Amino acid sequence: MKWHEKGILILVLYSVVMFFVELSLGGQNSLSGPRFFLWSERAVASILTLEMALRFWYHSPHTAKGTDRAYFESPEMVFDIVAVLPFWLGFVITNPEGLAVVRSMRVLRLLKFYRASPVAHIVMDSLISQRKKIRLVSAVVTITVLFAGVSMYHLEGPAHPETFGTMWGSVWWAVVTMTTVGYGDMSPTTFPGQCVAILIMITSIGIIGALISIVSSAFQAAGDAVK
Length: 227
Description:
Layout: H1 3-24, H2 35-58, H3 75-89, H4 96-104, H5 118-129, H6 131-155, H7 167-178, H8 191-226
């Protein structure tokens, strides 16, 4: 690993540590807390943005390296964008809830350590090799969640407007049920709703199991490659 790449990783680690320090001191907003954290974040984000811009330029068609499009098709490009996205989104999103989510995304900068981990590359390559299966199962999961959400919205919404009265609430129930988390904060009481719930519970066992099996096989292949 080159010296500047090590420096970027140290900078990423510093920014995440400072973020947790700011939160531990009760900082809910960089603008209202100590100015040190605000300017520290601005400096880190500026350096990371410059680094990403240089990588884009280095791999662009205007340079000798431009014929190599591997960077633009790699997870590294995505992680570079994710590392700077929270900072720039902060200038666009103004509501407190949205800003809280954006601030939390700073932790995702740790994904840049992917570049320094050969094992992570092997795992990612294994997952990419299974991408067709993952896409298929993900599509089935999405369709099932939407079907369950719409069904519960129509069947349980009139009886429980406080829980199933919105599409988001119904989809939330579908996801919680399919992942077998089962918070118990909402459940169907009508006969048609319970029938749909039974169907979703039985179906989700196979669907989620298939997804876990695909991901597990990818990690197993990565483990064999490391050995």
